[in-house]
Amino acid sequence: MTSLLPLKSGTDPSADRDLDPELLGLTEEQADEILAAISSMTARRILDVLYDEPRPTSEIATALDSSVQNVSYHLERLEDADLVEVVDTWYSAQGREMDVYGPTNGGLVLYAGAETTTPSLKRALGRTVGGIGILGAVSVIVHLQWARSGPFAPARRVAPIGAQPADPTLQESIVQFLTGPGGVLLGAWLVLIAVVAVRWYWHRYRPAREHA
C-alpha cells in the first residue's frame, strides 16, 4: 500500500539560500575544529555532495556508497563545526521524518595571511586613477574633434572689424569642454567608475576585511 505522506516537502531546500562564501584564517580558533571535521575524505565528499544539492542522510550514503552510520558520524562532526545544518524535513515511504542537510555557507575558503587573500584598496585606487587619466585623455580628444567640426565648432569671441578673432579664455575653454560631448562623456564615465567602485568596496573589500 502506497503511503499518502510525501517523500519530499513541497519546497526546494536550495531556494532562498543565497549563501556567502566563508573566509577563515588558519590562525583563527574555529580553524582547528573545521580542519578536524574535514580531515576525513568521507567528510570532504559529504560536503561536496551537499554543495551540489541538500540531501538526507540516506541519500548521501547512497551517493557515496557508504553506510548510513558512517555518514551520520561525519555529519554530526560537520554540524558541530558549523559547516552543515538541517535545512528541511522529508518523509520516508513509511512516514518517518528525515532531516535534510545543506551547507551553512556558499563556499569554504581557508587562507594564511590577510594581504594575499583580501583585495588591496591601494592597488584598486591606483588602477582607478590610471583609468580616469586615460578616460580624461580620450575625452579631450573627442572635444577637440568636436571643436573643429564645421558648424558645430564653438564660436570665438567677437573682435573689432579688421582685427584677428580672439582665442577663447581658459575659463571659456573649460566651459566649452564641460558642456561639449567630451565633458559629457567624461562625466558619464566618472559616474560609472564611482558606481563600480562603491559596489566593489561594499561587496568585496569590506566583507573580506571583516573576515581577515
Write up what this structure looks like:
The structure is a single chain. This protein is mainly alpha-helical. The chain folds into 2 domains: 22-111, Arc Repressor Mutant, subunit A; 121-211, no CATH class. It has 7 helices and 5 strands; from the N terminus they run βααβααβββααα. The strands form 2 sheets. Strands 2-4-3 form a 3-stranded antiparallel beta sheet. Strands 1-5 form a two-stranded parallel ribbon. Strand 3 (84-91) and strand 4 form a beta hairpin. Helix 2 packs across helix 4, helix 3 (57-64) crosses helix 4 (68-80) and helix 6 (170-179) packs across helix 7. The longest helix is centred in the C-terminal third of the chain and has 31 residues, at 181-211.
Topology:
Elements: E1 22-25, H1 29-37, H2 41-52, E2 55-56, H3 57-64, H4 68-80, E3 84-91, E4 97-103, E5 108-111, H5 121-147, H6 170-179, H7 181-211
Parallel strand pairs: 1-5
Antiparallel strand pairs: 2-4, 3-4
Helix pairs in contact: 2-4, 3-4, 5-7, 6-7
Global outline: elongated
Q: Write down the Rg.
A: 31 Å
Structural class call reads mainly alpha
- Strand content range: 5-15%
Alpha plus pi helix count: 7
Largest sheet: 3 strands, antiparallel
